[in-house]
């Protein structure tokens, strides 16, 4: 399978997973332990696709490494093992600039 095809499939899957209620609940729970309001966590999840398109390829690759534990190619297609803790970490990073601005 060509690398660009696999990369596109991984990105599509990440975008899909970030829209699921299960992921939203997991991210909210993880960030709630850090006193980050639920509304901010939901907003960060909703803003991810727009932000992704603005990132440099190197930053996109770094985020993929944070989010993806393993990609396995099978006869049926790709099996993508995502890191739930990585999703919360990426959302935390997205919200850090806003929190710093609010503190100033």
Number of helices: 5
Strand order of the largest sheet: 1-2
Proportion of helical residues: over 70%
- In terms of DSSP E residues, the strand content is 5-15%
Low-confidence stretches: 99-104
User: In terms of quaternary structure, what is this?
Assistant: single chain
> Kindly, what is the distance between the CA atoms of the first and last residues, rounded to a whole number of angstroms?
49 Å
3D shape = globular
What is the chain-wise order of helices and strands?
A: HHHHEEH
Which radius of gyration do the C-alpha atoms yield?
A: 14 Å
- Major sheet: size, sense and barrel closure? 2 strands, antiparallel
The strand count comes to 2
SS-based class: alpha+beta
Give the overall pLDDT as a whole number.
80
Keywords, separated by commas or semicolons:
alpha+beta, 104 residues, 73% helix, disordered C terminus, two-stranded antiparallel sheet, 2 strands
Task: Provide structural commentary.
It is built from five helices and two strands; from the N terminus they run H-H-H-H-E-E-H. It has 104 residues and is an alpha+beta fold. Strands 1-2 form a two-stranded antiparallel ribbon. Helix 2 crosses helix 3, helix 2 crosses helix 5 and helix 3 packs across helix 5. It starts with a helix and ends with a helix.
Q: How do the helices and strands line up, and which of them pair or pack?
A:
Elements: H1 3-18, H2 21-32, H3 38-54, H4 57-67, E1 68-74, E2 77-82, H5 84-103
Antiparallel strand pairs: 1-2
Give me a quick take on this structure.
Helices cover 73% and strands 12% of the residues. With 104 residues, it is an alpha+beta fold. The chain is globular, with a radius of gyration of 14 Å.
